[in-house]
Amino acid sequence: MISTADICDVHPDAVKVAEPIFRSYGGVTDFFGPIETIKTFEDNSLVRATLETPGEGRVLVVDGGGSLRCALLGDQLAALAVKNGWIGILIFGCVRDSVALAQSAVGIYALNTHPRKSKKQGLGDRNVTVSFAGIDFLPGHFLYADKDGILVADHKL
Fold this sequence. Notes:
The chain is α/β, with parallel strands linked by helices. The protein has one domain (about 5-155): Ribonuclease E inhibitor RraA/RraA-like (Glucose Oxidase, domain 1). Helices cover about 15% and strands about 35% of the residues. It is built from four helices and twelve strands; from the N terminus they run H-E-E-E-H-E-E-H-E-H-E-E-E-E-E-E. The strands form two sheets. Strands 1, 2, 3, 4, 5, 6, 7, 8, 11 and 12 form a ten-stranded mixed sheet that branches. Strands 9-10 form a two-stranded antiparallel ribbon. Helix 4 links the parallel strand 6 and strand 7 (about 105-115). The model has no long low-confidence stretch (mean pLDDT about 95).
């Protein structure tokens, strides 16, 4: 994969750059793929349901409202992501089981860690435009991530 810095140099008008608020937690730091989205708050039911489906090299973008009060992803859901072919996960919220996540074969970026699990009430929306970190994430657009940052383009670059 070409670096996000190089993508910005080659395609400056084709990408939007997320504010640098995310940390890498997965065993993979560099990844790209088409976006699928979830909007939820302190409830990871839709995260699980989505990761149980074939990922086909997609990136799951989760707008967790920026909550720092519980985790929306842990080691069990990361294992589901790997098993089902998801290439990466971006969470505007927290993760847990960070030691295990670092060993998983999936890219994971999130705001921080939190030991508390989320609610399981089935609340949220799937495949909607979500906005955080200064940009919009639309289903079907492409996300590029590495240690330098996270970019979004409306088509594969």
